[in-house]
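Something for you to look into today, if you have time. What I am after is a single protein written out in full by you. I want to see for myself how the chain folds. Could you add the entry underneath, on a fresh line?
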Amino acid sequence: MIDTLTTARLTLRPFAAQDLPAYKAYYTGPRAAGTGAALPAHVVVERFCAMIGHWALRGFGRYAICLDPAAPGIGHVGPMQLGDDSPEMTWTLWSADHAGHGYATEAARAVLDHLFAAGWPDILAHVEAANAASHAVARRLGGQPTGARPAPWMPTGIQYRFTPEAAR
């Protein structure tokens, strides 16, 4: 069972079919440059399905960020774990229309609080070097650059570490 989290303005809920069109538009379009590059549509659909299945495999995962719980999501937030790597905190807004309102920070803070309350001691995030907006979110959340080499799939990224103490 996936918890639904709420903040003053947002509902963070499990993914639904209604979220796929905006997710697909993001990952096949120019905004995907902040997370690497645009992808073919069939790969995007596979990744969407994998995000849903991640909960069954790992017991944790990403949430759809919603302004209205009955409406399609505007982004996603939460931890993912690829292979044997450590879990990574992620956040993405799918449309430029939703950027600059503090939604990513608000959503990520809610998830971090939830993870830390569940006993997670820390979590890492990898941010592309050129993604200024995500670096700002990481700093607002209390993320500290680790100085470690980021994930191999993000050779120009910066790794941040989040702890319960720094997230306050």
The chain has a mean pLDDT of 92. The CA atoms of residues 28 and 61 lie 22 Å apart. The longest strand covers residues 75-80.
